Amino acid sequence: MAHVRKTTHSRKSAAGKTVRGKTSARRSTTVRKSTKRAAPKRWSQRVTRESDALDLKQGVFKLTSAKKIAASLKRSAEHSSRRKTGAYRSALSMLTFYINRAGKTLPKTQRARLERAKVELKRAFGRE
């Protein structure tokens, strides 16, 4: 007669924990700390400050005229030593980045002004 060995299989209990055999072993409830740090709150501000896009004049997007915004962006783009692409592309990407990051919180009047600044930027670089 062959010797038959009984094996215990893992089962899920009602609480969802794995239980071995017929007796349920208590598991310690230690909380593991995550090694990943939380993302900074204003990552877009950090990108604006540290990216290789442009050296912008402070408050450029809060100017009252679309022409002034476009002129300031053009001036910054042409004099920036941090940009990797052409001046027009860098200026337009910073303007678009600002509009996109502001999202729904951007007032409609300011959004319209920034959209007009895109057109003025095209005009300033002769890309109409």
Structure notes:
- By secondary structure, this protein is mostly helical.
- It has a domain at 45-124.
- It is built from four helices and two strands.
- The protein has helices at 43-50, 66-79, 87-102, 108-124; strands at 10-12, 18-20.
- The longest helix is centred in the last third of the chain and has 17 residues, at 108-124.
- It starts with 9 loop residues before the first strand and ends with a helix.
Features:
128 residues; mainly alpha; two-stranded antiparallel sheet; 2 strands; 43% helix; 5% strand; elongated
Number of DSSP strand runs: 2
Unreliable stretches covering 5 or more consecutive residues = none
Query: How many DSSP H or I helices?
Result: 4
* N-end to C-end Cα span: 94 Å
Structural class: mainly alpha
- H/E order of the elements? EEHHHH
Tell me, briefly, the overall form: elongated
Radius of gyration: 29 Å
- State which percent range the strand residues make up: under 5%
Largest sheet: 2 strands, antiparallel
How is the largest sheet built, in terms of strand order?
A: 1-2
How confident overall, as mean pLDDT? 78
Summarize the amount of helix as a percent range: 40-55%
Q: What is the structure about, briefly put?
A:
This protein has helices spanning 43-50, 66-79, 87-102, 108-124; strands at residues 10-12, 18-20. It is mainly α.
Write the layout of secondary structure elements.
Layout: E1 10-12, E2 18-20, H1 43-50, H2 66-79, H3 87-102, H4 108-124
Antiparallel strand pairs: 1-2
Helix pairs in contact: 2-3, 2-4, 3-4
